[in-house]
Amino acid sequence: MDAISLENVTKSYDGVTAVNGVSLRVRQGAILGLLGPNGAGKTSTIRMVMNILAPDEGSIHVFGEPISDKIREAIGYLPEERGLYPRMQVRAVIVFLASLRGMPEAEARRRADEWLERFELKDWADKEVRDLSKGMQQKVQFIAAVLHEPRLVILDEPFSGLDPVNATTVKDVMLEMRDRGTTVVLSTHRMEQVERMCDSICLIDKGRNVLDGELRAIKQSYGKNTVQIEFTGSDAFLSHPAVASVNRLGSGAEVKLNPGGNPQEILKAALQSGAQITRFELLEPSLNEIFIEKTGHA
Amino acid sequence: MHKIWLIVKREYINGVKRKAFVVMTLLVPLLGIISVVLVAFVSKHGSNQSLRLAIVDNAGSSAASIVQNLSAVMANGAHQFTISETLDRPADSKGIEQQLRASINIGKLDAYLVIPSDLSHPFELHMKNTGNFAAMAPVTAAVNQASIEARLRARGINVDNVSEIVRAADLQVIKVSESGESVERGQTFGIAIGLVLLLYMSLLMYGILTMRSVLEEKTTRTMEVLVSSVQPIQLLAGKILGVAGVAFTQFLIWIASLALLLTYGAFMAAIFGGGSFPAIHIPASLLVWVICYFVGGYFLYSSMFAAIGSACSNEQDAGQLQWLAMGPLVFAMSFYWLVMIDSTSTPSLVLSEIPFLAPVLMPLRISIQTPPVWQIALSMFLLLVTVFGAVWASAKVYRIGVLMYGKRPTVPEMVRWLRYS
Q1: 20 to 30 A Cα–Cα from A92, which one of A163, A222, A235, B348?
Q2: What is the spatial distance between Cα A71 and Cα A150, in angstroms, rounded to a whole number?
Q3: Burial B217-253 (b: 16+ CB within 10 A, else e)
Q4: Which of A212, A192, A166 has its CA nearest to residue A32?
């Protein structure tokens, strides 16, 4: 049974198709990276999974059941458009949101204190939300999304506004949850995070699912077609016919090869042109490159 | 149901904790107490200054009568007027008046009255403070009587006490109703005006409160987290009921303090000096109808205001759109006089049956003269049907609107939202 399964889901607003026949399966206990340029249909897809929007066509199942208010309580959701009641106390707002998701208030209060402690917000529990810094509010929002121990967590840009220390805490919590069997959907623009954390990805562009699967398998399917070269001297070799595209870096370049292009040819050409090579490495394409190739833009 | 209750509870607790709520709830009774004390105080200590008046009598026949008529005594025992001098047919009338004006300007005199040589010409009252109506009324009466006396005398009728003869007859207005008769002293009018204002103000105030509360969830971006846990209709219902609870609490405090004021008002007035406190009797049936129409009107208007709040992303946009809901209320207010003059007329009947106006105009009609039962029943029925329609439409607009940010939707766009599944 999949944590989420979308079958041919379509949604349009006033004639504009936001999601166009997307099918997707999210394995239980995995971290899925949901990627896509702005306006690709990620938020609409998530909102349909959360039963905030109804799909025009297709079906959505969460843990094998059609989406309903009951199954929704098993999901933790951190939307991109998020905020808290500014005049409520921190603990009260967490307890309120958890109780809306079906958790008894006493239990929610106890857990809120545990989580606030973990995120070093214990002293702020009785303060009003508006007294907190933006980063602190982000942490409170994260707590509110995961407090009720959901089996599925959907996080839309969870790291935005967090400093490196807190971002690490959030990342650790996500990995812990995954290890306990929780399914995590992470929607973000930050490729390096997806690359480090996600087991699988789904790339959405213009309302369509253009690529999905296990991250490792996807990368392998692209083969080692990228060469990272650090050099000084002439760069004439970069126009070698085996080179498909060049991404200039400070101390060298990242070179993508044409299909069938031999990296050895490039190295030979570089040496012949008199460049001093300090590094020459064959790489799998970065997620960023795959993203750009699939969507045609960054 | 449990989720609605959670929302009601949060809305209520945060509503009554708001500074604006606490201030308003306490300020209104406080102003009431202050005004009672002030009225009592002023009526005792206010105008204890005797008005110094000189009389220039160019006719030479009426001064005595006027002096006699101005002998009214104030609450503190002093005369309201002190006649500083009476000048009988002065040779140099203009010169005298100039001197009197000078006296007024240096503060030795407050006013002077000029009696014309021909009593068919106007009398003149010269004074600095022409806003002193309390002084003008007795002078008008005295002058009136003196001139009547003079005219009677000219026809050979001699009378000692004109005031006794020309005293206006009393017309006592008695209100007839099913529950019997009661002497009308303007209380019907007072209650009617009070009712209209109360209903109008509270429907508007709590409607806007609901709108603000919805808007706050949008501007603070709390909305999406909420609608991911509860259905928009639950959120809307919880919000309207929660604000209703806040309104109810405020009313309860106000009514309790009004009851205290009416009970102890006379007592307080007595402490701060004399002055009777009017006893106002409001029929229980009227109270019941007022509550029914208020509840109906509240659900009608607050659901409209909530829908407007949900469609907008900021206060400015909401300020423009809120006229959609305020319009009918203002319309009702601009026609209340029509109902007041004749509550049984056809226009009154038609206006009070329109569901958007009924919450204000029907209680007004009932307070003036209870209309036939079928008219109340029909307006209540129409109101209820409209309330259901409005709540339904608002829920539709609400569930789309809460997720819309950016440009304010136009009214046709909002109408289109009604058709979305």
Answers
A1: A163
A2: 10
A3: bbbbbbbbbbbbbbbbbbbbbbbbbbbbbbbeebbee
A4: A212
Question: Torsion angle of alpha carbons A200, A136, A112, A28, nearest 10°?
Answer: 0
For residue A160, the chain B residues in CB contact (below 8 A) are none
* Minimum Cα–Cα distance from B227: chain A residue: A52
Q: Which amino acid is at A242?
A: A
Long-range contact pairs involving A254-261 (C-beta distance under 8 Å, separation at least 24): A254/A226, A254/A227, A254/A228, A254/A229, A255/A226, A255/A227, A255/A228, A255/A229, A256/A225, A256/A226, A256/A285, A256/A289, A257/A225, A257/A226, A257/A227, A259/A225, A261/A225
A237: closest CA among A253, A258, A260?
A: A253
Look at residue A110 in the predicted model and tell me its pLDDT. 95
* B260, A179 contact by CB (below 8 A): no
Tokens of B154: 């000219």
For B53, the 3-state DSSP assignment is strand
Q: Tokens for B185, please give them.
A: 């002293």
Read off the tokens for B258. Answer: 């009004």
Contact B360, B300 (CB under 8 A): no
First to last CA, chain B: 23
Residue of B229, B400, B419 to mutate for A, most A C-beta atoms under 10 A: B229
Angstrom distance (rounded) from CA B60 to CA B115: 8
The pLDDT tens digits of the residues spanning B199-234 come to 898 899 899 999 999 998 888 888 888 988 888 888
φ and ψ at B192, to 5 degrees?
Answer: -60, -50
The encoded tokens of residue A212 equal: 């999905």
Instruction: State the ipTM, two decimals.
Output: 0.80
Q: How confident is the model at residue B246, as a pLDDT? A: 92
Check: CB of residue A102 under 8 Å from CB of residue A88: no
Provide DSSP, A212-260.
Answer: EEEHHHHHHHH-S-EEEEEEES--GGGG-TTEEEEEEETTEEEEEEPTT
Residue type, A129: V
Rounded percentage of chain A residues whose pLDDT exceeds 70: 99
- CA B333 – CA B156 distance, rounded (Å): 56
- Axis-axis angle for helices B373-401, B284-311 (nearest 10): 20
SS3 for B224-290 is HHHHCCCCHHHHHHHHHHHHHHHHHHHHHHHHHHHHHHHHHHHHHHHHCCCCCCCCCCCCHHHHHHH
User: Which residue of chain A comes nearest to B13, CA vs CA?
Assistant: A88
Q: Map residue B45 onto helix, strand or coil.
A: helix
The full set of domains in chain B, from first to last, is 46-168 (3.40.190), 184-417 (no CATH)
- State the average pLDDT for chain B: 83
Which residues of B fall within a CB distance of 8 Å from A81?
Answer: 221, 223-224, 405
Q: Which of B16, B21, B224 to mutate to test the interface with A (most CBs of A within 10 A)?
A: B224
Show the domains of chain A with their CATH numbers: 4-219 (3.40.50.300), 223-295 (3.30.70.100)
From chain B, the residues in CB contact with A85 under 8 A are: 14, 216-217, 220, 222
Q: Are A41 and A19 in contact (CB under 8 A)?
A: yes
- Find, among A161, A152, A151, A157, the residue nearest to A187 by Cα: A157
Tell me the two tokens of residue B217. Answer: 């969830």
What's the rounded Cα separation, in Å, for the pair B382 and B376? 10
A123 CB within 8 Å of a chain B CB? no
**What is the pLDDT at residue B419?**
77
